[in-house]
């Protein structure tokens, strides 16, 4: 199967402050290039890891409901990627439930790739997660104002 026939799911979550309000963002691109953007405040408080996995769950649900069978999930969260690949197992009960939900959704696809991407390559999903909480997108590091040295 070629990469072109896979759906790409870029996922990110934010907690402001951490822990705090949760926002999720995702970009789901189908195998024809059609895009679906998700940006949602979850209406509860939690930490950044909860927001990250909730974003994956939302993207997986959207892809499943739209008929995807082959997906590539991209996240900048090492915690999420390692857990979904079966390299680690969380001891945090709240996270364990969320990861179990995500893994059950993953089992419904024929082909699954889980990819760790840099924050630079996940800016779109990050901007959507931040927008859900009314926050501006983060500027790339080279465009941020320099902090004065004391």
Q: Your description of this structure?
A:
The chain is an alpha/beta fold. It has a single domain, classed as Nucleotidyltransferase, domain 5 (2-Layer Sandwich), CATH 3.30.420. 33% of the residues lie in helices and 29% in strands. It contains 4 helices and 5 strands. Helix 1 packs parallel to helix 3. The radius of gyration is 16 Å and the shape is globular.
Features of the shown structure:
150 residues; alpha/beta; Nucleotidyltransferase, domain 5; 5-stranded mixed β-sheet
Q: How many β-strand runs? A: 5
How much of the sequence lies in strands comes to 25-35%
Uncertain runs are none
Main β-sheet, spatial strand arrangement:
3-2-1-4-5
**Distance between termini?**
56 Å
The profile of the biggest β sheet is: 5 strands, mixed
Give helix % range: 25-40%
- What is the tally of helical segments? 4
CATH topology: Nucleotidyltransferase, domain 5
- Compute the CA-based radius of gyration: 16 Å
What's the CATH first level?
Alpha Beta
Overall mean pLDDT stands at: 94
The SSE string, one letter per element, is EEEHEHHEH
What is the approximate shape? Answer: globular
CATH homologous superfamily (4th level) name: Ribonuclease H-like superfamily/Ribonuclease H
Number of domains: 1
CATH architecture: 2-Layer Sandwich
Helix/strand-derived category reads alpha/beta
Outline:
By secondary structure, this protein is of the alpha/beta class. 33% of the residues lie in helices and 29% in strands.
